[in-house]
Structures
1.
Amino acid sequence: MGNRSPWTCVLWDVDGTIVDASEGILRRLAVTLEHFGKTAPTRAELVHWIGPPMFQSFQVTGGMTPDQAAEAVAFYRVLGKADGYTAGAKLFAGVGELIRQLAEDGVPQATASSKPEVQVAALMDHFDLSPCFTAIVGATPDERTLAAKADIVAEALRRLEAAGVDTSRPVLVGDRHHDVEGGAERGVPVIFVRWGFSWPHEAAGAQAAVATVDELRHLLLIGDAGA
């Protein structure tokens, strides 16, 4: 007998939740910030950068004006395209298997990422996860037109609904405070995962917080034979 879910659909953040892309992000950030006369971040400082839209991070963390941040984002994206969006990226252990299990058990899923959608699609293709998702949703290339987490969550729900999915009991899986805040703005509960790039206090306001994929599975599936 297959498993069932207490949720009608599952939305996934990507960076820090499904994918560890920190190696490539750190390298591109270092090149970009040095190009604009700023100090390159250390790996420990990546927590300030990974998660929110880069347009926002270049202002808040990088100390840039909106115009400078827009230039920096464009420069950063050129580097990313040259690298290949999947360079150095890896799945967090067990997450891909859980996504596949949810798909096999008929649970509709969508990404809801602050990364540009073209990059999200490339990553899901790279890891052979695209068939598991009813909708792959991310930010617009400029990270300004569609970038706020609440708006991305709303767009993911809109596309799921358009595909005939029941969106009456959605849940968002994420690893940063802006996931929690964005979900709350749209009335979507959040399961906070602690294996990403975050501080413990960022889980405040989440429906639950988990440290392992097994703990997450228990919250997403009922009757799991492996539980």
Note: The chain has a mean pLDDT of 92.
2.
Amino acid sequence: MNGLYALKPWYADRLSGVRASLVRREVSPDTLTAAGVAAAAGAAASLAWLPAPVAALPVAVLLAARLAFANLDGALARDTGRTTRRGAVLNELGDRVADLVVLAGFLPLAPLWLVALAALAATLPSWVSLAGAAAGAPRRNGGPVGKTERCLLVVVAAASGWAVPVLAVIAAGSLLTAALRLAGLWRETA
């Protein structure tokens, strides 16, 4: 059930040189969290304002940056011994805000109710994982439509102009991902 999340170790390895450079420059992990939200906002603006397929390249680059920052902030905190409970809260809030900001880029392209449904559904897998972690269970990630898959689907919409079908897939796939995570969590916490 890990989906594209299974590539995270490979991706983290590709970012190791960047991470080492950030450690040398004493960059704050919180700065990277904020940069991830900014990259998400840039992707949303590109999706909203540029026509398909012109939007595809900037959306893809900015979402790749968003995912890189999401990977780097926690790794940098661990590498530098700067992990804090406040930083963990900021990281989670930054990820949820970035998810919602990206989906806000669909507002001029699709009905408000569908954008809102997709946004709500997209947050559910993370809330399930966080609830499980709060209960002492291992954090569940990945799934049929986790964060990485949602980013890929947004790029598909930017390339094709298929905002409504992509939002429908994000909503349905995110609900399925949340249900699968909850089922696994339910078994673990029995």
Note: The chain has eight helices and no strands.
3.
Amino acid sequence: MRLMGAVLAGGRSSRFGSDKAQAMLEGRTLLDHAVEALGRHVETVVVCGRQVEGMIGLADRPAADMGPLGGLNAALHHALAQGYDAVLTTGCDVPAYPDGLAQALIGPEPAILKGQQLAGFWPASLAGELDAHLAEDNNRSIRGWLERVGARIVDRPEFVLPNINRPEDLQALAKDSR
């Protein structure tokens, strides 16, 4: 199976107060950490929702400010066009992707990690379905999309991913990593 990785990085970071993707952890941006962590499990990684020098950047589809589904949609269409079977996703504020997580998510249908909806597995064949979903009158929530496609919720407590929503969360993570 050909897997592409996608880091969803088009959010507004409103609770964080500044661009989370560019926040620093151990001398590197959170985005750099996320790309590297996910990259160990896939053939290539794209960044959705922004352009970053030296990386493949995809504009959210069909437009910006559609939340994570706009980034996922761009990734699915890119994966389909490039001959990938599926996409593994993570958020730009998740600087870890533990060994074994990809295998836990991969299966015949889409899946997310319980408690971390951006850590997901998405067959590229869902690209047209997500286009249709985003064209409809709905709130564009991840939950609505999960229900529509019958995604599995993978409950694996050993896969704890950092959740960075506020500067204090980043500070606590930096302190713990010392």
Note: The mean pLDDT is 91.
4.
Amino acid sequence: MAVSGQRRRPVVALYERIADAVHDGTYPPGSTLPSEPKLAAELGVSRPALREALLLLQEDGLLTVRRGVGRTVNDRPPRRGFEHVQPLEELIGAGTPLRVRPLLRTVEEPTDFTTQHLLAPARAELRFWESVLAGEGTAAALSHEWAAADELLDRVHPEFARALQATETDTPGEGGDAGPGSAVSMLSVLVGASRETALSAHSGITATLLGRRRGEQLGRPADTPAVLVTQVVRVGEIPVLAAKHMLPTGAPALPVLQSH
């Protein structure tokens, strides 16, 4: 059964009115909203109802509260509708992308994970990148990324294959250790190489604990709660990249869009 706009909950209708004003430029990025009494009067609503809608807008990443300033519109408010595939360091950077600190750039045989998600044959050679994403000196996430085998990429996405090879050629590390030339994520390489290639992606989200090794890499105790995001990116029906992203407690908010 379809639900008409008239049957939306009042707080949702108010939320949409303010969100519309943000997206149409009435309140442009970086601007400060009017005070609560003034905004409530402009919208013809009560202050408690306005406060509830503003709280939802903050949680959804459109607004930020700054002490002594008030509520400001984020520089990069979330887009509506279907999102472009975005690198994690941009998605959770809240307008300031996180830095990618490479830990490992190597080639490995398929694991159960990559066999399942990349459909990799036994004994295939898959590029594996391990990186820490950091902001303001704090490690915010640990990423493990795998690319499909070169033979497959050469056939379905040769631009991505060439971009990966160029990135690793610029990397001076030895024995799999990553050097400063590889301070990007694999997904950012894929997105940059896909201006003429349509991508699709899906992700799964699981609650877990960091464990000892990942805790050491992120500078957190082993029993720190975390969110594990698994991600697969495809060209058509063919998977070209699979990833695991570990976000410990205290990491920046991760916007999630669900569509059907």
Note: The two ends are 15 Å apart (CA to CA).
